[in-house]
From TrEMBL:
Belongs to the archaeal phosphopantothenate synthetase family. GO terms for molecular function: ligase activity. Keywords: ATP-binding, Coenzyme A biosynthesis, Ligase, Nucleotide-binding. It comes from Candidatus Methanocrinis alkalitolerans. This is 4-phosphopantoate--beta-alanine ligase.
């Protein structure tokens, strides 16, 4: 196989190949865990099922997420190893646009990895980054992911946690927080627990969110609240499953044709 630098942009798998390479580089830099490669493979398989595009229900969820972030009194963006490898600039840009801190939280935690991710985010222009000196615990978690920071996730009212695991998502919701996730599996525990679930690839979802925050920042608070009141996450998840079924049906029909 040729080096990725030699793969033309016209290659049908170009975007996917570049995403994989970013994760491999993340592992080499000590930012992403090897287990993150497995998670990426699972997500990529699910992305096939929606045609590797942002669907209508995903866009509806992204619009709701933008409204929630704009209305939040203390939003925080959580960053794990895969997010740090795939969308670090976008995470910093979104945080800066809404005046939110970032907090590093990784499943297979080592202090060295946390520091590397925090330093990466600071180097990209992040204002405040928590996570390398946690001083609180999320109740109900018997794992290193229970570590949190006061002023960060522990005190947040809205937490944006792309590529999250189910038990931590449930624990955050039980704390009374509104949780926004990016999860390509609409049937996962994370997807079903979250306040707003974006069934989209994180490399598409983050640029979309940044654009939506820019677009919606001028709307008055009442309008944003009406948008959120009309949002139904379970209905969006059902429609996301329907999008997968529709795409598969179309693909099989093409084979028959």
């Amino acid at each position: 196989m040729p080096a990725l630098s030699e793969v033309p942009r016209t290659h049908p798998r170009y975007a996917s190949l570049m995403t994989r390479e970013k994760l491999v580089e993340g592992v080499g830099r000590g930012i992403t865990g090897l287990n993150g490669l497995i998670a990426q493979g699972r997500g990529e398989a699910l992305d096939y099922l929606i045609g590797e595009v942002t669907t209508a229900p995903a866009m509806e969820a992204e619009r709701a997420a933008a409204a929630m972030l704009l209305l939040a009194e203390g939003p925080v963006l959580s960053v794990n190893g895969n997010a740090a490898a795939l969308v670090p600039k976008e995470m910093v840009a979104l945080a800066n646009k809404i005046g939110a801190p970032l907090e590093v939280n990784i499943f297979y935690r080592t202090e060295e990895r946390v520091k590397k991710i925090a330093d990466l985010l600071r180097g990209l222009g992040a204002g405040t980054v928590y996570g390398d000196e946690p001083d609180a615990q999320i109740p109900g978690l018997d794992h290193a992911r229970a570590k949190a920071a006061r002023g960060g996730i522990y005190d947040a009212d809205v937490v944006f946690v792309p590529l999250e695991d189910g038990d931590r998502c449930e624990a955050l919701v039980k704390m009374g927080k509104r949780v926004i996730t990016v999860d390509l599996n609409p049937l996962s525990r994370t997807a079903r627990t979250s306040t707003v679930t974006i069934v989209d690839n994180v490399v598409r979802a983050l640029p979309n969110l940044i654009s939506l925050v820019d677009e919606m920042a001028g709307q008055d608070e009442a309008e944003l609240r009406r948008l959120l009141e009309g949002y139904d996450n379970r209905a969006v998840l059902r429609r996301s499953v329907e999008e997968m079924i529709s795409h598969l049906t179309h693909q099989f029909s093409a084979l028959d044709g």
